[in-house]
Design a protein that fits this description.
92 residues, 2 domains
């Protein structure tokens, strides 16, 4: 995957071509205004993958913070709590 640079006029005048390019090549297209990078266009698949990866990284960072600050419990406690919750739902 790579990055392709296109002027802002191309986004307006060649949208279909740019859309097809990002979908099929999985490249990013950087749109420039007055020769400077302004906007990045990525395919929806890449966007969804990036957001899923970011969410996973956030979860891992929170878990790491919990471990570093002693906010942990034995796994058996978690299983016991889950079992109790499920029994309440089943019986209640």
């Amino acid at each position: 995957m790579g990055t392709i640079i296109r002027p802002s006029a191309d986004l307006r005048n060649h949208y279909s071509e740019i859309s097809k390019l990002v979908r099929e090549s999985r490249n990013t297209v950087v749109i420039t205004v007055n020769g400077r990078g302004d906007t990045a266009v990525i395919g929806l698949q890449e966007y969804n993958q990036m957001t899923a990866e970011l969410e996973l990284l956030r979860s891992l960072a929170e878990a790491d913070d919990d471990v570093n600050n002693g906010r942990i419990a034995p796994i058996q406690n978690s299983f016991d709590d889950l079992r109790a919750t499920l029994l309440k739902r089943k019986n209640g």
